[in-house]
Amino acid sequence: MTAQTAIAISMLAALLAGCATYTTPGGPASMTALDLGAQPASIAGESSATAPGDAISAAFARTPRARFPAQLVVVRIQAAGYASASSAGYGRGQFSVVTSRDIETDADFARLGVMPGVAGVARLNRLLLPGNLGLYDVRSAAAELHGDTALLYTLDTSFRTESDTFGPLQVVSLGFLKKHNAVVHSTCAAVLVDVRTGYVYGIAESSATEEQRANTWSTGDAIEASRLRAERDAFSQALGEIEKVWSEIYARR
């Protein structure tokens, strides 16, 4: 090996060692895949979805039974196996539940608590949840908290530059990003569900985008800050939509 080759290899090793990486967060829960009237996932397994015709009939058969003023239980759900730099999902099955707060604040829950007809706001923790999760299990856990209505929400966050798109749980080598615009886009989708019956009262959705030069993503902390800002904005805007939906629900109770 020549001296020049040895120097080149050393320089490459140093470059690779110093190259920062970032792992994108896991994906969203599939709202359309949720079987609102299914039996517990711990009993039914992951193949508990009903046939299309039966699911339609079951949806029409469900009725609202929440009592007002209502106890609201707030639950963030993500894809099974969800993980990010600031949180991780609990459970397996149809989805996982994120019980830690990384984008939510006390002010957000206070905001929900002053909506008309809300008696109180609670959040689930993993002590009330089985390991294998379906929506019935979440409703059952919400019932333990005497919840009347469950607010389920999920975040779908994507990362892209002008030349690359990064999916869930993908490792990004930040040092090799081209000097293009970098975009973090997050959508918060939410559904209000009757705890007793699985009846869907309404849905809400909102999106937010963080855009900057990709060379500002020089560290994992920098891209993580962009993600949290985008998710925080999407969630905050979704709260405004939830307030509108809830007002309609309360007016026709």
Give the overall average pLDDT: 83
Shape, principal axes of CA atoms: elongated
Helix content: 25-40%
Radius of gyration: 22 Å
Total individual domains: 1
- How many β strands by DSSP? 11
The number of helical elements comes to 6
Structural class: alpha/beta
**How is the main sheet built?**
7 strands, mixed
The low-pLDDT segments are: 2-18, 43-48
Distance between the termini: 81 Å
**SS strand fraction:** 25-35%
Order of helices and strands: HEHHEEEHEEHEEEEEH
Secondary structure layout plus pairing:
Layout: H1 3-18, E1 21-23, H2 41-44, H3 52-61, E2 70-78, E3 92-93, E4 96-98, H4 106-113, E5 118-123, E6 132-133, H5 135-144, E7 149-161, E8 165-166, E9 171-173, E10 181-194, E11 200-213, H6 220-251
Parallel strand pairs: 2-5, 2-7, 3-6
Antiparallel strand pairs: 1-9, 2-4, 7-8, 7-10, 10-11
Summed up:
The chain has 253 residues and is α/β, with parallel strands linked by helices.
